[in-house]
Amino acid sequence: MEVVIVDSPEQIGVLGAQAVADTVTAKPDAILGLATGSSPLAIYDELGRRVAAGELTLKDCTGFNLDEYVGLPDDHPQRYRNVIEDEFVTKTDIDTANVHGPDGSAADIPAACAAYERAITDAGGVDIQILGIGSDGHIAFNEPGSSLASRTRLKTLTHQTRVDNARFFDDDVDAVPVHCITQGVATIMEARHIVLVAAGRHKAQAVHELVEGPISAMWPATILQMHPNVTVIVDEPAASRLQLAGYYRETYAAKPAWQGF
């Protein structure tokens, strides 16, 4: 696990976008794993800037979203397929038809989950997965207590996650759906490169557990310690509880210029 500590969320965006750009340069038709929430927005902004400047193209790429609320109408602004469209697709040149998400409106949710899992596999698997982390250590909607061997499935959101997400629903926690479809922990672990980003002191304990704590289903993100290629990019407040923060800074500063993520 490579840990990079930066000064600002904007720097998180630049480094996260560089990791995506490196992947796409090596493989122009790369499969991108896309996350919603506040954490990845700086990455999407920077990718959009690079596409607009002619420095990068995502036209041959395919995207798979991490998760989706169950029960929101197709035109709801907080439906994650619509959020990704607004925050990522419209800013880049990726074909909207090549961006896929779980079907939260399906009549048969278990069948929709299995179909989504197959679609990722049939596409060849995710080349680079962008992740955020919840203050309780969840990744995607794999809440504390989730099986570390889980696959795409229906989940019930914890009250804390609904409280955290209420800001996207006019601060009305009752408007936040109770259920979702999420890629499982084991599904996420099959991505070839994972880039997890976090900003703010409220993420500090989760980042500490992720990087330095024991692997535990109570902190689902800790399973990433077992992945062979994870980059964690955090700002100083999010890194404030890391016991080895000085070591991580020294290690990244000494990294050879030719060595990418």
Descriptors for this entry?
alpha/beta; Rossmann fold; 8 helices; 10 strands; 16% strand; globular; Glc/Gal-6P_isomerase; Glucosamine-6-phosphate deaminase; carbohydrate metabolism; identical protein binding; hydrolase
Summarize the structure.
It is an enzyme of class 3 (hydrolase). By secondary structure, the chain is of the alpha/beta class.
What's the helix-strand series? Answer: EHEHEEHEHEEHEHEHEH
What's the shape?
globular
Query: Which class in CATH terms?
Result: Alpha Beta
Radius of gyration: 17 Å
Uncertain stretches: none
Q: For the residues shown, what is the average pLDDT?
A: 95
State the separation between the terminal residues, measured CA to CA: 11 Å
Main sheet attributes: strand count, strand direction, barrel closure: 7 strands, parallel
The strand count comes to: 10
CATH fold name: Rossmann fold
**Count of discrete structural domains:** 1
Strand order of the largest sheet: 1-10-9-6-2-3-5
Beta-strand fraction estimate: 15-25%
Proportion in helices: 25-40%
Based on the structure given, which CATH architecture is correct? 3-Layer(aba) Sandwich
Please work out how many helical segments DSSP would assign: 8
Helix/strand class = alpha/beta
